Amino acid sequence: MQEAPSRPADYTMAPLHLDSRARLRELGIELAEQARRELLLFAPRLDPDLYDQAPFLEAVRRLALAAPHQPVRILVAEARAIARDGHRLIELARHLSSRIALREIDERDQERRDAFLIIDTRGYLHRPLSASHQGLAEFDGRRGARRLREEFNQLWEVARESSELRRLYL
Questions:
Q1: Residue 33 lies in a domain
Q2: Rounded to two decimals, what is the model's pTM?
């Protein structure tokens, strides 16, 4: 029987209401560190202050190398801008392309304003407005994680691979 990932003692099983960028970053990192099978990220603009941080990148790298197939899938809206800005998560995905999959959401979904991170169909962090610092996180929120995973999979199915996000071999 696999042991459940540990959480800091001050975390309860109740949803955590987030209201600061620092708290979003902290919980995003902690969730990523606890992922054992899968990490799904829907972040239209892939905010570097949240997802281009060394501890987050290390947690993603560790999962990508430890789990089979493509345990990390990332959906973005503005692939050209993200690639142009030199985001380290994109570079990591290019380096580990058989383990980290990147896609750009379909034009019909470009108006979505939320952002979310899901781990192992168990934990999640959701911001109803991706530009906001407010959101909700649960380390053991299976129902919320399942609902967001279903949304992610629907977005993934119609998303497309982006030439801006792929590694170019010259």
A1: yes
A2: 0.89
Nearest 5°: phi and psi at 132?
-95, 160
Tell me which amino acid residue 69 is: H
The verdict on residue 89 lying in a domain is yes
Q: Identify the H or E element spanning 22.
A: helix 21-34
What's the full length of the chain, in residues?
A: 170
Q: Per the structure, how many domains does the chain have? A: 1
Q: Average of pLDDT values for 19-37?
A: 95
Q: What is the DSSP string of 49-81?
A: HHHSSHHHHHHHHHHHHHSSS--EEEEES-HHH
Range of the domain at 93: 16-158
**What does each C-alpha distance from 87 to 81, 84, 109, 120, 142 come to in angstroms?**
10, 8, 22, 24, 30
| Residue 88 CB neighbour total at 10 angstroms | 15
Provide, rounded to the nearest whole percent, the portion of the chain with pLDDT above 90. Answer: 69
